[in-house]
Amino acid sequence: MLLIAFATLSTCLHAVPASAQEGPGLEATGHVVTEATPQQQQPGTQQPAASSSEPGTPPAEQQRLESPSASDSVASPAGQQPPEAPSTSEAVASPAEQPSPDAPPPTPPPEASGKQRSTVVRGTRPAQSASEVTLGRDILDTAPRTNATDVLRVVPGLVASQHSGEGKAQQLFLRGFDALHGQDVELNVGGLPVNEVSHIHALGYADTNFIIPELVQSLEVTEGSYRAFQGDFAVAGTVRMDLGAREKGVEFAGTLGQFNQRRLVVTVRPGEDPGTFAAAEIGESDGFGPQRGYGRAALLAQANMDLGHGLSARILGGSYVTRFDSPGVVREDDLEAGRSTFYSGSFPRQGGTVSRHQLLIGVDLPREGTARTRVEAFGILSDLRLRNNFTGYRVDDRGDGLEQTNGGSILGLRAEHRRQVTLFDRPVALELGLGGRRDGIHQTQRRYRETDGTFFADEVDADITQTDVWGYAEARLPLGRWAFRLGGRADALGVEVFDALAFRDSRYYDGQGYSRSAFGVHWGAKAGIEYALTDTWALFASYGDGFRSPQARSLSEGEQAPFVDVHGAELGTRKDGERLSFQASVFGSQVTDDFFFDHTVGTTVFTGETLRTGISAALQARPIEGVTAALSATVANATVTKTDAKLPYFAPLVARADIGWEKPLPGIGSVLSVGTGLTLIGPRPLPYDEFSHTVFLADAQAALRRGALALRLDVKNLLNTRWRDGEFVYSSRFDPTTQPSLVPARHFTAGSPRVASLTLEVHL
């Protein structure tokens, strides 16, 4: 009903005239960015935010131009030059400063260097809850970022664990949720969805290893489930990555490091627009211990194009392939007895291969007044073959090794429309979205012998077609110092499953294979209230319904597809500023009919209703020129409502600090930069009333650049801490000559020791 109401509202109400954008009191959501040439850029600095046009309205709303997505990047019209901007990488203009569409282009002042500059207009969704945050390139450059795990760790409160090799999707923890490999965190890269539905290894499987870290321009983080654009798996939050190349020209980066690490990245940016680029990565390593070697190659390319007549397009494509080994786990009692070392591998056949190929085509339609419309179509092909054995010979004397395969194809289409309308003589920012996604999946699971790797049992052989069609609407109405947000979202899910192994046993049915289908709808409400204390400081109250789609193979014929419903709420405050931005919130999430999947033994445990509560805070500071800092901490609790028992594996305390300093050295014509990334993870509850070890990690980097050459030293785990990346409690039998036992034991996967690497960059 909310969707119908807002759709009617959009068509019936007249749009605000373009000239009204310049009047006081209008909530203009504008963020105009002027990007200078590399000679004019000063990384790590920001321009002060312009004053709001209405007293008490947060600049986060006044200073952003709502565009269809955070990855929007549009070049200025030919021949039109912007006014001279300060020598910073960003200049923010208030709505009153934006020229009318009918006004003649401004006369550019003379450039000291005599070089022409271009303008890139970027849009981000305005922050409308206390915990939304955007992490820019200056923060990402403060600490070593050589893979996707390093990029994700900068997200406030997020733990990214890579305990099964360099090619498997990270295990994620956020806001009291053990999201496994993505079931509770929605991930999006440049507009491409990452989470895979009904995956054989884990629901919502999100493999981000195809990302080339040097291309991540910014991270747009929306924690909680309070915004209407958040879709499937946006239970604990949503992370969107915007892609872009750092500098115009060609950049070569070659890395050599310990454990025979070799990596080469080539990036090409032909013009001033950082959103038009092509980059390739090739990397390999023997790993820091047995069965940790890997090799991978990735290609990502994007083009922003002005098609004329107000029409623009964006194309993003890429390919990725990897082969990796996995060490498995070490039993704690084997380590104590000297039968294993800290970095031992358990069984030799573990590891896998992954490939991913993707294409997105987006079109921005000509702007009409305040209305903007974007249409995007995308396609993804992915394949996974994974072997692992976490229990040894506990189930079968031939071995408990599993080989899982998952081949997926995704076709999707979405449209987003934003405009400003008037209601009761007040401006209303309206956002509408429609979309559909079709996933075709073929998956198998077989058991193999540890002696020779041959298969002896088929457990899964299924073909799945899963279709999600959605629509959402969200409106924001400012009333003086107050602002009210109301929205809704509906997702309709249709599932078709063919199980080739059903009724295979002729004792029960004289045949093989069985088809079944299911259908369900999830309705979700979104709401928020804001109160502006000052121009830069506001209070927020947010509510939202999130959801997680079901595992298709678990559904029966004609079943109403049971979504996992999440009801979340948050109270908080945020202060935005040039030198200091701060956020703090108290949050809670109630999950009905929850479950967690113990991937070590392949068992889903249903818990009923669960409750997550906690507090979080994040800070971004640029106190003096050249210094950048991002600090965050999250304290969370997760319990089963009926018994008040703690859920296993969630992270109750996560703290992160990224601090960087950049200093020009005029005497030698160079720039020195140093930085560090610090991570603290408190003890996590484990099954059988046990707890994991506390983890503290320190990464550091130092770089010196002179002209076209730069040399960078990265050191991960600077203190050489012996830490456990993953810890589990369950029963296992690693020695087939011993008697089987169901007594639970501690297991762990070792985190990386100190690893140093040296990178030479050449900028042409």
UniProtKB/TrEMBL annotation:
Q: What is its main location?
A: membrane
Q: Where is this region: Disordered?
A: 21-138
Q: Which family does it belong to?
A: Belongs to the TonB-dependent receptor family.
Q: Which GO terms describe its molecular function?
A: siderophore uptake transmembrane transporter activity
Species lineage: Bacteria, Pseudomonadati, Myxococcota, Myxococcia, Myxococcales
Please tell me the species this chain comes from: Corallococcus carmarthensis
Do the record's keywords include Transport? yes
**Which residue stretches does the UniProt record annotate as biased composition, category Low complexity?**
34-53, 67-78
Enumerate the Gene Ontology biological process terms.
Answer: siderophore transmembrane transport
Q: Which residues form the signal peptide?
A: 1-20
Query: Might you report a single GO cellular component term?
Result: cell outer membrane
**Membrane topology, from the record:** Multi-pass membrane protein
Per the record, a Pfam family? TonB_dep_Rec_b-barrel
This protein's UniProt keywords: Cell outer membrane, Membrane, Receptor, Signal, TonB box, Transmembrane, Transmembrane beta strand, Transport
Q: Write the protein's name.
A: TonB-dependent receptor
**Domain TonB-dependent receptor plug: from-to ranges:** 133-238
Ranges for domain TonB-dependent receptor-like beta-barrel come to 382-718
Ranges of biased composition (kind: Pro residues): 101-111
Q: Where in the cell is it found?
A: Cell outer membrane
Coiled-coil intervals: none
**InterPro entries on file:** Beta-barrel_TonB, Beta-barrel_TonB_sf, Plug_dom, Plug_dom_sf, TonB-dep_rcpt-like
Q: Where is the composition biased (Polar residues)?
A: 115-132
